[in-house]
Specification:
Strand content: 15-25%
Largest sheet: 6 strands, mixed
Number of helices: 11
CATH topology of the largest domain: D-Maltodextrin-Binding Protein, domain 2
CATH architecture of the largest domain: 3-Layer(aba) Sandwich
Order of helices and strands: HHHEEHEHEHEEEEHHEHEHEEEH
Distance between the termini: 47 Å
Number of strands: 13
Helix content: 40-55%
Radius of gyration: 24 Å
Structural class: alpha/beta
Length: 300
C-alpha cells in the first residue's frame, strides 16, 4: 500500500467526490477511480458507497481515512526532521498551545529562540486540553503546552512547569484597591467576574474550598465565561467588572495604561501547566533544541 495511494484516497474524501479530487490532483478521473478500486480489492472491503450526489464512507472507509491521515502526517514529519538534521539552523517546530498561554509563548519565548535560530519555522495550533490530546495523538503537533485541572494522559510524556498564578485584572478608571501587593479575595466582594472557560472549574473549586456557603454568596460572582482572551480584557476594560485569568496572559496581551493586574493571595488560585509529547517521541536538530529551551524557560 503506497503512501501516494493513501494521499489520493484522503483527497477524495476531503473533496467530496472523485471528480473534484481528480481535478485538484491533476489526475484523470478514470485513473483515480481505478486506483480506488485497487485499494478496495487490496483490503477486501468496500470503502465508499457512491451515489449521484455524494460519497458515503463505510466503517472500513472511515477507519482507513483516519489511519491514512496519521500515516501521511508521520511521513511529512520524517521529511521535515530529515531536513532539520541536515540543516540544524532551520527546521519546523509543530507546537500546540492552550489559548491562554499562546500570548506568552509568542511574545516572550518564540522571539528569543528565533534570535538564535533565525531560519526556524513554527506551525502553531491553538487548542484547549482535550483538542491538544487529539492533535498530539494524530501527529499533527509534536509538542503541546497545556493548562489543565487534571493530570495528563498516561500515554503522554509530561513535564510539569511552574504554576501560573491567577490574577484579578481590572481597569483603574472604574476600580481601586488599596496597597500594591497581592489582593485579598474579600476586596473583590460584590464585583462581577469574567473567567476563562478552561479555568472556570478551578476558580469555582478554589472559592468553595476556602469559603463556606454563607461567605461564598458575597464572593465575586462569575458573571461571564469566555473562550477568547480578548473578551476577558474587554470585560475588564469596559468596567463591567474584573477578569480572573492567569498572570502570564495579562503580561503578554493586556498591558495598557488603564488596565492593571494583581495576583490573589491564595496559592490555590493557580493554573497547572504541562509540556506534553507523545510517548517514544525522539526530537532531532532544532526541534530538540526548542524542546529543551521550552522546558528550561517554563520550569524556572
Amino acid at each position: 500500500m503506497e503512501t501516494e495511494v493513501l494521499r489520493n484516497y484522503v483527497e477524495i474524501i476531503d473533496c467530496g467526490s472523485i471528480t473534484a479530487a481528480a481535478k485538484k490532483l491533476y489526475i484523470a478521473q478514470p485513473a483515480l477511480s481505478l486506483q480506488l478500486k485497487g485499494l478496495e480489492k487490496e483490503l477486501g472491503a468496500t470503502l465508499l458507497i457512491r451515489s449521484a450526489h455524494k460519497l458515503e464512507l463505510t466503517d472500513t472507509g472511515r477507519m482507513l481515512y483516519k489511519k491514512a491521515k496519521s500515516i501521511l502526517s508521520v511521513e511529512s514529519s520524517i521529511r521535515r526532521e530529515a531536513a532539520d538534521i541536515a540543516n540544524s539552523a532551520g527546521g519546523i517546530v509543530r507546537l500546540c498551545s492552550d489559548p491562554l498561554l499562546t500570548g506568552d509563548i509568542c511574545t516572550r519565548l518564540m522571539p528569543e529562540f528565533k534570535r538564535h535560530y533565525p531560519n526556524i519555522v513554527y506551525e502553531l495550533y491553538e487548542a484547549p486540553y482535550s483538542e491538544a490530546m487529539i492533535l498530539l495523538s494524530e501527529c499533527t503537533a509534536d509538542i503541546a503546552v497545556v493548562s489543565s485541572a487534571v493530570r495528563p494522559h498516561s500515554d503522554m510524556n509530561a513535564v510539569k512547569c511552574t504554576d501560573d498564578r491567577i490574577a484579578a485584572v481590572y481597569d483603574k478608571r472604574f476600580f481601586s484597591f488599596g496597597g500594591s501587593g497581592e489582593l485579598e479575595l474579600q476586596e473583590l466582594f460584590g464585583i462581577p467576574a469574567a473567567v476563562p472557560k478552561s479555568c472556570e472549574k478551578l476558580i469555582s473549586d478554589a472559592l468553595y474550598r476556602r469559603y463556606d456557603k454563607k461567605k461564598y454568596r458575597q464572593m465575586p460572582m462569575i458573571s461571564c465565561t469566555a473562550s477568547d482572551i480578548s473578551t476577558l480584557f474587554g470585560w475588564a476594560g469596559s468596567g463591567l467588572g474584573i477578569s480572573l485569568m492567569p498572570l502570564s496572559a495579562y503580561r503578554s496581551c493586556g498591558r495598557t495604561q488603564t488596565l492593571s493586574a494583581r495576583t490573589l493571595n491564595d496559592p490555590s488560585f493557580a493554573v497547572e501547566r504541562y509540556i506534553l509529547t507523545r510517548q517514544g517521541t525522539a526530537f532531532h536538530g532544532t526541534e530538540n533544541k526548542f524542546y529543551d529551551f521550552l522546558c528550561a524557560a517554563m520550569t524556572h
